[in-house]
Amino acid sequence: RFRTILEDILAREGAASFQYILTRGLAPLLGAVRDYAAAKGMVAAADEVLITEGSQQGLDLVARVLIDPGDVVLVERPSYIGATSAFRAAQARMVGVRLGPDGLDLDHLRERHGAETAAGRRVKFLYVTPSFQNPSGISHSTSSRRALLEAARELDLLLVEDDPYGDLYFEAEPLPTLRSMAREAEVVYLSSFSKILAPGLRTAFVLGPEELLAKIEIAKQSANLCGSSLDQRIILACLRGGLIEEQKARIRPYYRAKRDVMLEALAREMPSGVSWTRPRGGLFVWLTLPEGLDAAALLEAAVAEGVAYVTGAPFYVDGGGENTMRLTFAKEDAPTIEEGVRRLGRVVRGRIG
Question: Does pTM top 0.70 for this prediction?
């Protein structure tokens, strides 16, 4: 299908496919993204949408526009390293808020927000990934999302919602986005087509207030002038032709089956005292070792066994998480996942004794 789409674009558009486009994005794609967002309950005016080269660029641009050195950004504990790296580059003071199995600890959110405000520091926004978070795989329940929006309204707190995995749900129906639920709280929303179609197609989008997106557009112009005309035309064709919805329907059972293999292998191979999340979508499982064990110290032994993972501590902006690790079922096939978990279990049992 991609080859056919590409050949059709080149036949119809010719050299225009390789020309500059508007910084904000290809005009027909902007309209198609508005329709795509509206189908998820997120109505956006023409000036409230902007195309970026992957969600990572969106995070970088949001950070560059919103953060002044020393501003406070609240983030989940744990939180996505790509986002915290962008905030750190903008010289933000990052403050972690506990993430539970059902969503953010809102008492802790109020406590951290209050402490920073009382110290005279300016809290710019809360960064949150409500659906199948990277790294933990945790999703906020609908009631937790509603309560978070109420807390944000109460605290006059801007929310930056990162949603690259929301369409990769495995059970029931997708959870509503914060932006679709928001009535009084303000939400900047980021999402991407990369996790659905192909990571090399660096096309994502931001929805937000007109005034903010006008500033982001200027920042984007200085960053890379404009995106890839060809990539954006491919995404537009995929949206118009229904390929994106078809792909979603294909990849959900594909990843669900591999998630199941990993969870079954963990239950079989891991010793008592080890726990892990059971994600209802996305690509990640978060494993917690008994207190006192260090995932970083185990990594060399794991690699010697031919298996690797991402240590958890770097996902915590204010320390902790030494006994955690991120596992993924995205790339490997079922037999490899089973064998990898078996080897990892052997390493963990050897350390626990």
Answer: yes
Distance CA 275, CA 282 (A): 19
Stretches in the chain below the pLDDT threshold 70? none
* Cis preceding linkage at 78, omega within 30: yes
Q: What is the pLDDT of residues 226-238, one digit of tens each?
A: 999 999 999 999 9
Cβ neighbours of residue 7 closer than 8 Å, sequence gap 6 or more: none
CA 300, CA 315: separation in Å to the nearest integer?
20
Query: Tens digit of pLDDT for each residue in 25-80?
Result: 999 999 999 999 999 999 999 999 999 999 999 999 999 999 999 999 999 999 99
**To which residue do tokens 């557009």 refer?**
217
Q: Are 104 and 133 in contact (CB under 8 A)?
A: no
Determine how β-strand 204-207 pairs with β-strand 187-192: antiparallel
* Structural domains for the chain: 2-241 (3.40.640.10), 248-352 (3.90.1150.10)
Q: What is the rounded distance in angstroms from the CA atom of residue 165 to the CA atom of residue 202?
A: 15
Element (H, E) at 337: helix 334-352
197-202 contacts, C-beta under 8 A, 24 or more apart: 197/235, 197/238, 197/243, 197/244, 197/247, 198/2, 201/231, 201/234, 201/235, 202/53, 202/54, 202/57, 202/227, 202/228, 202/231
- For residues 160 and 62, is the Cβ–Cβ distance under 8 A? yes
Cβ 231 vs Cβ 189: under 8 Å: no
